[in-house]
Amino acid sequence: MDDAVRALAEGLGPGGAVVAVGGYGRRLLLPRSDVDLLVLHGDRRSSREVGAAEQLFYPFWDAGLDLGHAIRTVDECVSLAAERVDVACSLLEARLLWGEVALVQRLQDRLRPRLAGGPFLDRLREDVEARAARFPACSTDLEPDLKEGSGGLRDLHAIGWAGRVSEEAAVRPTEAGALDAAEEFLVRVRSALHLETGRRTDRLFLEHQPALASAFGFEATEGLAAPDALMRALFGHARLVEHVRDRVLASRDRMVEVGEVATSEDVMEAFAASATAGAPLGPAALDAIEAAELGDGPFPWAERTRRAFLEILAAGPAGRRALEAMDRADLLGRFLPEWEAVRCRPQRDPYHRFTVDVHLLEATAVAADLLAGRRAEVPAAAGEIEEPDPVLLGAFLHDIGKIGRGRHVEVGADVAARALERIGVEPATRHDVLFLVRHHLLLSDTAVRRDLSDENLVLDVAARIEEPRRLAMLEVLTLADAEATGPHAASPWRLALVRELGAKVRHVLEAGDMGPDRAALLEGRRAEVRDLLAGEPAEAVERYLARLPRAYLTSVAPGTAAAHFRLVAPSLGAAEVRSIAIPGDRPGTHQVTVVAADRPGLLARIAGSLSLEGLAIISARAFTTEDGTAIDLFDVTPAFHGDVEEERWRRFRRTLRRSLEGRVTLEHRVAEKRRHYPPPSSEVPNHVRVLNDASAFATVIEVETVDRIGLLFDLARAMERLGLDVRLATVATYGERVVDVFYVRDALGGKVEDGRAGEIERRILAGLEDPR
Amino acid sequence: MKLVTAIVKPFKLDEVKEALRSIGVNGLTVTEVQGFGRQRGHTEVYRGAEYQVDFVPKVKVEVLAEEDQVQPVVDAILKTARTGKIGDGKVFVTPVDQVWRIRTGEMGPDAI
């Protein structure tokens, strides 16, 4: 190449020079690199000289080579170098190919004093920061830019340039070898990428990684695919480059220095000081840490270490930088050997942008910011959390099980338990952290994949979470996890669903509809029913248990629930009505169960049919499954003492069927029947309350009144006329006083609008006072 | 050719996808969308404070179909995406003038 340029340069007039700059200047031409040439003139140049220089360039273009070209005077070079640090640096490396040595000498003599010391380092640092913000990092990003990305080739050049202008910025002998190896690796990968793509591209996209991995001889090992091994090696090299770069370019005036560093406790505290100050450790501190005789680890965790570590986790982005500095200095893994398996580990899915370890650090930083209120928008959940440590540790460890073996959530709980044991976290916190690790996907997975209007679903999620306190922790972790994953995971679309689920679960937990006791009761009841139904097909039993409303499971005795299996499990025809009547718990009472496809007015018709047979309803429980099967249980007793013979049950069934078929209307007959009964003997004032906040899924209507025959029929008819669907009803009789509670939804399947509450109260009251 | 566009509840996506695959649909586009229909937004009570959910998250599924496949595609979506509750979504059918497969340049039905 040099010879070709020299031959072409012969056409130029005397007094000029042709120099190689950039990668060509450094004798580092990759397969698809551009060739950077500069034609240098003294003080002025003629148009003839410009024309001659252009003649020099044409053959390159004709040959299809990318040519970076410039024609400048020494003055122009100097002023351009003042503006752009990359130009200045590339001129420092200018290599004469042809022409006047003196000219190049003059240029470099004029440049050198301008490129000395602090100000130049400041400019390099600004350039490094600007690139880090713009390009995907070689140290963490799954599709890195090998040249411009943080830890990439430009950073290596910056280290070199810094070393030329400042002795303080010189590379230490201990680092030089590793830095050379990193450079060789990066250059080889970039060359291979150029060959693979046939283009000058520096972005190592996922699609290129398998081919490059095999070209470099990386092989899959247990839990780590070959492309992942390539990327892991790349991340390792790039992180070393970052480590040296940050030390070399560090601004001396905003660094944290610490006192003596002799033990691992001192090390953790030094990094905690750096995290809380929001500034990196100074060279003296780093030298002291490097010089301390700490051994290979794992280091023991003293109280001081633990406290300092938690300070780092709580410090947000500054804490993340401190942990990254520990990682680059090969310290984090010696404190926490569990970290090694996720270090530099790529994850390949459409959501994640970063390696596992970086994702964990980022999630921790986001969680810390949310908890400390350092965000513009702080979710309400964050404000409820009094003890930040479980959330911070949970964020730090939530994906620690992503080590390529088994399902990461289960593996993660085991690994996290070991890590927490090592750190010496106290049992209550440990319990919370493990809960978070085990359930970190619960909210996000459920919110996106399941029907949030399904009450059973929400109750089951609540049963796993148990307390509002733990829900708040899980919500903060879910948010931090999503944000640390990437823009797709934290889209407003996803977050809206997660927030809806969170609000519903909170409602259920705070209303007491679910909690540790109820969750345990529910699980116990399920187990009992399972035992009682051991002879039935297990799959059908599980389906049955999943369908049953949770309120049914907690309020109906397991024996009864098992007896209902035959009634509920077989699929039900639209017009089919199944019922059984068995002796009740108390003498003289009977328990009647009716199962039918839910429809408007079903409850009223059952209650009316019972009343017509002279059966007084002592208590009633009406349930509806999410798929629209009504399971209604009634405890009844004959209004006038006496046995209930089979003939009466037969008549009841017939009346019910005929009324459901629309062949008889009950209202008239129930009113008629009522005349045969004595009026209530005591005064109970009528109360009706409509509560829209008591349940997340239904409006609750409470009715208190005096008992009378046909009361439930009247109330249920009133609900039907109001267009309300009774999802759950309980009727309790206290002597002559009756308290009925109805959970209703409107015709659209939601709670009734707040504006209707008054109308509902009025109409139910009117019906109570004037039963027709 | 027609473009069948369905707006469905997010948790119904897998069922819809399976149903379409089972009738021979071998390509579709899925987008996460937010919006509102008759259902409007709804009010959630969160820590005692109400907040208005203006836009409800849904999934948009788009399928290109030849004339004789349109009704089966629509039926499959109607059947699987239905919960019977409010907010089940909509299906639209719109005419498509032309379609190209970018890789090969194929046109019309061949490009579906």
Question: In words, what does this structure look like?
Answer:
The complex is a heterodimer of chains A (772) and B (112). With 772 residues, chain A is of the alpha+beta class. Chain A has an eight-stranded antiparallel β-sheet, with helices on one face. In chain A, strands 3-2-1-4 form a four-stranded mixed β-sheet, sandwiched between helices. In chain A, helix 12 (264-277) runs parallel beside helix 14 (303-314), helix 17 (356-371) packs across helix 24 and helix 34 packs antiparallel against helix 35 (757-769). Chain B is an alpha+beta fold and 112 residues long. Chain B has two helices and six strands. In chain B, helix 1 (13-22) runs antiparallel to helix 2. Mean pLDDT of chain B is 86; it is low at 45-50. The chains are: A alpha+beta (772), B alpha+beta (112). The interface between A and B is medium-sized, with 23 and 22 residues.
> Termini distance of chain B?
9 Å
Mean pLDDT of chain A: 86
- From the N-terminal CA to the C-terminal CA of chain A, the straight-line distance is 107 Å
Give the helix/strand class of chain B: alpha+beta
Q: Extract low-pLDDT stretches of chain B.
A: 45-50
Helix residue percentage of chain B? 10-25%
Silhouette of chain B: globular
Note the quaternary state here: heterodimer
Q: What is the H/E order of chain B?
A: EHEEEEHE
- Quick one: overall form of chain A? elongated
Please outline the major beta sheet of chain A: 8 strands, antiparallel
Rg of chain A, nearest Å: 39 Å
Strand order of the largest sheet of chain A: 5-6-8-7-11-12-10-9
